[in-house]
Design brief:
Layout lengths: L12 H21 L7 H17 L23 E3 L8 E3 L2 H14 L25 E7 L2 E8 L2 E7 L5 E3 L2 H4 L18 E9 L2 H13 L8 H9 L4 H5 L4 E10 L7 H10 L9 E3 L2 H14 L7 E8 L2 H7 L9 E5 L4 E13 L5 E12 L2 E7 L3 H7 L2 E2 L2 E7 L3 E7 L9 E2 L13 E5 L4 E2 L10 E6 L8 H8 L12 H8 L13 H4 L6 H5 L6 H14 L4 H7 L7 H10 L3 H6 L7 H5 L3 H8 L17 H9 L2 H12 L27 E5 L7 H10 L3 E3 L8 E4 L5 H9 L2 E3 L1 H10 L1
Parallel strand pairs: 2-11, 22-23, 22-24, 24-25
Antiparallel strand pairs: 1-6, 3-9, 3-10, 4-5, 4-7, 7-8, 10-11, 12-13, 12-16, 13-14, 15-18, 16-17, 19-20, 19-21
Length: 749
């Protein structure tokens, strides 16, 4: 490795700072774009630390594109959604050589290059077919997260996720932490006025293994695969947390670009590579189907040696003029396809089944198998998805099973080889209680019905089994993060990163207990240990403790919505708090009072079965719970786990009276409001309201406002630029109101 050119210490401070910046930029380019490092990681870190010290001493010399900006900065408040200058469309997939040949035939025909008048393009694919001028570029399809980088006069000004293709989230704070992404384009040629580079952000396998090892050491659930970890990292709000994940970036396309920059994709690749942007070294150019299929076959043999995940190869027309002529459908360009590799499948023995409890309480059966080499990695564990699927496939411990990787990433058991089943193969018995906390379990079926273990239902219909104890240790971290969030208890200064740091003290000499919701309100008893946390100063700690104290008086709705109770989100929690003045009244209510609308629509026989009386309720209110969900919520509220949670919260001074309660004569009633009892979805922009204001207003009028359209949606309110939600509502025949209709209804209410 050549020695870096270390700036001389005799230069003045300004020159030294600029020299360090230049050297660190060259080091980033050499490592990520040129694959030819000029210094070790230790040398890079030492020079970066020196630069940071000099910039801190001389803030007047600050620069927005300094390499130190990659690891600094405060967490952002949230994401801004920004429209793409050029839509980021999806790519059509193909799975066979015949489909590739058919696509190439369509390309040639559309470009007016078919071999004969009757449209028979078969001659194009004969080995002896002449080169008709159309060129293609084949590149690996990296399994990561798509990102669009916008440079203006060579400086990075914005990074957007794909989003819905028309608009994406601004994640510039995340992009700036990725060393492979230049903050300022380099090279001899001047950059264009506008240059949008699209590419894939990903986590290399060694980094993924390091991250998971650290999470497991800290008592956290490991990530399922690199892509999910990458997607979650990009949407972190804290740039420091993102920088620790060491993401990578490889370019694979363009968005808006000033005229004259490049005439073809191959030229575009060359020019951005010369400016320090990483491009794939595995791109291959071809002129016909045979060349493309040879490239695909060649890469399939080599791809498992890479340190990142790929699941196919992208093939595109090279000429931008050809791309423009071919155009696009509403979803996908016609000038590009993705060839997806078939999943490799191998047999192995199923030795045991473990039960994993995820952050939502879902209990997932995981196969423990004899190790098998699959798609370049040794596999010993695989998902069995759910217990209904196990029953349907009749998978047993001791079976020989076929295993493959879904999308080349996640291993799963396809089916047992029944012809090889041994006589001692044993059935897999689902747990009747949580395997982690021994808490109560609920079972969901394909029809949406909910059962308890021991109830009568078809075992093959089971789609999920969940622990309903919100303080289950397996779920605790995610529950705590949710509980302190802005829309729940809104505890300023206590976010995801701080919770992770506190949980990590469990094995230290000064542990800070955080084993349940009530422990949050006892954190003030551990000031010294908290001050020892990274980046925790006196001022930040005081702000956090004030936020914790303020959270005690948020009221019943915030507490219920923050606990992560199954079927009780923000809207349902508010609806319950409007009906019940405090927790004690809620706990005294029989199950039918948690679902008055559903109860009153039951037959008299059903009502008698539930309450002992066939009579309807004298109730004119809505809680958001129904015949399937109310019994589950009622059972949880009266469980030992819930009683302990509520008692602990009361003991630390949390107020469980309602701030939203309305006396019976103040309720809008099922018949008194056009929104009462309706499930409503908001989409688009409304001139008269912002989204949170309208949501709260509708909920106060008895509506349940949700984020997605389904067959259970009663009404969609569509403003300007309404998107896919409006399309889905129209397809399902759901009633749609514009803003004028909404204002009229609100006036009547």
């Amino acid at each position: 490795m050549p020695d870096p050119e270390t700036p001389s210490s005799g230069k003045n401070t300004s020159e030294r700072i600029e020299s360090l910046r230049s050297l660190l930029r060259r080091a980033n380019r050499a490592y990520y774009a040129d694959a030819s490092p000029i210094m070790s990681d230790r040398e890079y870190d030492d020079l970066l630390a020196e630069l940071a010290d000099l910039e801190a001493q001389h803030p007047e010399l600050d620069a927005p594109d300094s390499p130190t900006k990659r690891v600094g900065g405060e967490p952002i408040e949230g994401f801004e959604t920004v429209a793409h200058a050029v839509p980021m469309l999806s790519i059509d997939n193909t799975y066979s050589a015949d489909e590739v040949r058919a696509w190439i035939a369509r390309v040639h025909k559309s470009l007016g290059r078919a071999d004969d008048e009757d449209g028979d393009d078969s001659g194009l694919f004969a080995p002896s077919a002449p080169d008709d001028g159309t060129r293609f570029v084949c590149e690996p399809k990296i399994d990561g997260v798509a990102l669009s980088l916008r440079y203006e006069e060579g400086r990075l000004v914005r990074a957007l996720t794909r989003g819905d293709g028309e608009k994406g989230d601004d994640v510039s704070h995340a992009a700036r932490t990725i060393r492979a992404i230049p903050l300022r384009l380099q090279g001899e040629a001047a950059p264009p006025e506008v240059l949008e580079i699209r590419g894939e952000v990903f986590i290399p396998r060694p980094e993924f293994e390091r991250i998971n090892a650290e999470r497991e050491a800290g008592g956290l659930d490991p990530f399922m695969n690199p892509r999910n970890a990458c997607a979650g990292t990009i949407k972190q709000l804290d740039p420091k947390a993102i920088a620790e994940r060491r993401l990578r970036f490889i370019a694979h396309g363009r968005g808006a670009v000033s005229d004259g920059f490049a005439a073809s994709y191959s030229e575009f690749r060359e020019r951005i590579a010369a400016m320090g942007v990483p491009v794939s070294p595995h791109a291959i150019e071809a002129s016909d189907a045979d060349g493309i299929l040879d490239a695909i076959e060649s890469f399939e043999r080599e791809r498992h040696a890479l340190d990142y995940d790929t699941d196919g190869m992208v093939v595109r027309v090279d000429s931008f003029a050809g791309q423009d002529a071919l155009g696009a459908t509403s979803k996908s360009p016609r000038w590009i396809i993705a060839y997806k590799f078939a999943a490799e499948r191998k047999p192995t023995r199923l030795d045991a089944v473990e039960f994993q409890v995820g952050k939502t309480g879902k209990i997932t059966p995981r196969a423990v198998m004899e190790p098998v080499l699959l798609a370049g990695t040794t596999v010993r564990h695989a998902s069995l998805h759910n217990f209904g699927l196990i029953r349907k496939k009749d998978i047993r411990v001791g079976d020989t099973v076929l295993v493959e990787k879904a999308g080349e990433i996640i291993p799963y058991v396809v089916e047992p080889v029944l012809a090889q089943r041994p006589g001692d193969a044993s059935e897999i018995t689902p747990p009747s209680a949580c395997p982690v906390c021994d808490g109560d379990v609920e079972i969901e079926t394909a029809t949406g019905a909910v059962f308890r273990p021991g109830d009568g239902f078809d075992p093959e219909d089971e789609t999920a089994r969940r622990c309903v104890n919100p303080e289950c240790p397996a779920q605790l971290r995610e529950k705590l993060v949710w509980f302190v969030g802005r829309n729940q208890m809104d505890i300023d200064g206590l976010g995801e990163q701080t919770i992770d740091q506190i949980l990590a003290t469990a094995g230290s000499d000064t542990p800070v207990p955080l084993k349940g919701f009530a422990d949050i309100f006892r954190l003030g008893e551990h000031r010294d240990a908290l001050l020892a946390l990274d980046r925790m100063g006196e001022k930040k700690l005081e702000n956090m403790l004030r936020g914790i104290e303020a959270a005690k008086s948020r009221g019943l709705a915030r507490v219920l919505g923050g606990l992560g109770i199954r079927h009780v989100g923000t809207s349902t929690a508010k609806a319950l708090a409007r009906v019940f003045p405090d927790l004690d009244t809620l706990l005294e209510a029989p199950v039918e009072k948690l679902m008055p609308k559903a109860f009153n629509t039951m037959s008299s026989k059903e009502r008698a079965r539930i309450s002992g009386s066939p009579d309807k309720l004298e109730a004119d209110y809505e809680t958001g719970l129904g015949r399937d969900t109310a019994p589950v919520v009622h059972a949880y509220l009266h469980s030992k786990a819930a009683r302990k949670t509520f008692d602990d919260l009361v003991a630390v001074g949390v107020d469980l009276t309602s701030r939203d309660y309305r006396a019976p004569d103040e309720h809008p009633g099922v018949g008194g409001s056009p929104f009462a009892g309706k499930t409503v979805v908001l989409t688009g922009t409304l001139a008269s309201f912002d989204r949170p204001e309208l949501k709260e207003k509708l909920e106060n009028l008895g509506a349940k406002v949700t984020g997605s359209v389904s067959k259970n949606t009663d009404l969609v309110i569509a403003g300007e630029k309404a998107g896919s939600k409006l399309d889905k509502a129209n397809a399902l025949g759901i009633e749609v109101w514009d803003e004028a209709t909404l204002l009229g209804a609100l006036g009547d209410a």
